[in-house]
Write a structure and sequence with these properties.
Helix 3 runs antiparallel to helix 6. By secondary structure, the protein is α/β, with parallel strands linked by helices. The radius of gyration is 22 Å and the shape is globular. Helices cover about 45% and strands about 10% of the residues.
Length: about 290
């Protein structure tokens, strides 16, 4: 089977490395394509993709064209509208930060319409969603992406992350499905289905880490239950192969710590989630001491 993996940038290769190796080991042809658009197309300093190229004759990597024409920008704006409207739903009533982030991406006319009056109600927003989806369906596919897929002619397209605001990768989904090529979305991280954009499908398959994420794909994104598969978190497969590089006593001695006392690891969050985390950590340490 010939599989085309479309990634936003090479930072996602590490998350899929075990899966890519497994596919190659099983004899499949894997073409890895990075999206050209954006400023972070090469975020893997160890260049795992090149390591795979050197290891597997049936593995390759390339760049995939991004859509830049007026219709592409219009389609992205329509998807941004749908992404924003999800955060007006009751389940996001207690998530003002997510809602505010989504507001920054949409046009003032939509904000004005949904801040009061008919379109601030559930039925009114449903009408906006229906009209927006109808307009999206009317946008033709991108001829450059069509040509890329025509040249590669994969048996299946696997894509990640897809759920970024405005979902520029949705253009690859639309082109592939128009050509009759099955499309699978590989959910990249644990929070992708709850605090990012919508899945702009339809898709033939969605892979998730666990049953909770499976429920999110079905309930929040409308993916049919028979198209969502729990696969585990492939991005952490390599953890099972790791071995300690030193003993606990040596580790503590190198850092001036007592080996007979417990060690606490605090894993920090992003600035979006916790912009003032450093003062909190310092206060937390004071309480511990």
């Amino acid at each position: 089977m010939k599989i085309l993996c479309v990634l936003r940038h090479s930072g996602y290769v590490r998350l899929l490395e075990s899966t890519l190796r497994m596919l190659c080991d099983r004899g499949h042809r894997v073409d890895l394509a990075f999206q050209i658009a954006g400023t972070h197309w090469l975020l893997d300093p160890t260049d795992v993709a090149q390591q795979l190229v050197a290891t597997y004759p049936r593995f390759s990597r390339s760049l995939i064209p991004a859509r830049h024409d007026a219709l592409g920008h219009a389609a992205r704006d329509l998807r941004l509208r749908l992404d924003y409207l999800r955060y007006l739903a009751p389940e996001y009533r207690q998530a003002p930060k997510l809602r505010e982030r989504a507001r920054r991406e949409v046009s003032p006319d939509l904000l004005a319409a949904t801040d009061g009056g008919l379109f601030a109600t559930g039925p009114g927003q449903g009408l906006i969603k229906a009209l927006t989806r109808a307009l999206l369906r009317a946008v033709p596919t991108d001829p450059h992406i069509d040509a890329f897929l025509e040249v590669h002619r994969p048996d299946v397209v696997a894509i990640t992350p897809l759920i970024e605001p405005g979902a520029p990768q949705a253009e690859y989904v639309r082109s592939a499905r128009a050509m009759g090529i099955p499309v699978a979305m590989l959910v990249a991280s644990w929070d992708n289905l709850t605090n990012k954009g919508l899945i702009h499908g339809p898709l033939d398959l969605v892979t998730v880490w666990n049953p909770m994420m499976r429920d999110e794909a079905i309930r929040m994104h409308g993916v049919p239950a028979d198209r969502v598969v729990v696969t585990g978190a492939a991005g952490f497969d390599h953890w099972f192969e790791w071995q300690p590089s030193t003993s606990r006593a040596e580790f503590c001695a190198q850092r001036g710590l007592r080996a007979d006392q417990p060690l606490l690891l605090y894993v920090c969050s992003s600035r979006f989630i916790a912009p003032e985390e450093v003062p909190f950590v310092r206060q937390w340490l004071d309480f511990l001491r």
